[in-house]
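#lab-general

N.A. 3:47 PM
ok so I finally got the sequence cleaned up, no stray characters, all 455 residues accounted for. can someone with queue access submit it? mine expired

B.Y. 3:52 PM
send it over

N.A. 3:53 PM
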Amino acid sequence: MNRTLWHQDRRMQKFRGVLDRWERRELSQLEAAELLGCSERQFRRYRDRWEDEGEAGLEDKRLGKASGKAIPVAEVERMLALYRRRYGGWNVKHFHEHGVRDHQFTWGYTWTKRQLHTAGLVARARQRGAHRRKRERKPCAGMMLHQDGSRHAWLDGQPELDLIVTMDDATSWVYSALLVEEEGTVSTLQALLAVLGSEGLPCSLYTDRGSHYFFTPRAGEAVDKDRLTQVGRALQRLGVEHIAAYSPEARGRSERMFGTLQDRLVKELKLAGIGDIATANLWIGEVYLPEHNRRFAKPAALPDRAFVAVADKAQLTETLVIEEERIVARDNTVIYGKLKLQIPESRVRAHYVKARVKVREYPDETLGVFHGPRCIARYDAEGRPLAAPTTPSLAPCSPSSRRGLETQATAAPGARRPSLTTSAREANGTPRVGTKKRAARSNQETGRGAATAAP
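B.Y. 4:20 PM
back already:
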């Protein structure tokens, strides 16, 4: 029994009950009409129809007749055929948006969903669970960013990949969505570099407790914020607070976003015929994300932005890298992984043996060796030297530490200062006449030579 027939049966039952009370003179016609929700005159019409035709007189005469506003059957069949042929598996909302945009749908979302449910093409949504109170959003953009990864078969016919998403807590605006083979330190720093370079520095970053984000001494316990990972070191140097989430429910906003992306992005990539990571990342940034943010982003409670602009992008690039400390070996080389990096000759110092240096690995897999704030060598991914370094590290340093690094004009030698054991005559500038510096020989040799030379 459908909903309309059920409501009609309920109205008949209610009318029979009210009519029985009216016949027993418990109710007046006015009171009976008020209970039925109609006028007194309409109650008398119902009474007359009941007496003449019985229950048939109370049936709605519109039931079983086609509505004058009904959508033609041909249009219904066209919509169902389009879903079967091209959009199979899409959720109703996503399908309806494409239908309105690309296929001139003029009917509403609810009608479309009802037709798909009736045809058995879309399953009805299951009942929701218990209500959980959501954490309030931050009042303005830039106060907190969420970053997380989701492993899924994003590309049709390809193995599962990780999608690294960075989004704003206040607006759900997705700043970056990056497909990589496996989530880790390199992909995280690459995503942060893209977002922070374009938007600025946020107040905080909210992530899970993955090993590339935090060090956890024991599984299930609190993270150790004193033992920083590469990501933690970079965020601390930039002054961005790093917040750890201790449950999936705490990351509910990003988890719901991944649910939307796993449903929509996969189908959009398949519809666009994209099958490789590089093309997918380019298409996601230029085509998908603008439309996604237009559809799902929310306005912030306050119009202000908490992002802090980065004055020098080169400093940001030198910070969001993998950085490890090494000690230079006796052959003036540095061991990094399986590579042996030979430090080139320098005019600053003869060698760097036993000096502490830092090796930085950049997102493009090139390497740089730094002694203090200075870059002394750069290498490609295979450890081969690149062009001579031109820019030092942009970490702050005192002016005095840079003395002597520039080539200066050689000053003319001045007068030599007398030593502390010089005689008064020599100190006044009067040289000793007829004196010569003796050969470096012992007194015995000198005495023996003098004795031999005597007549």
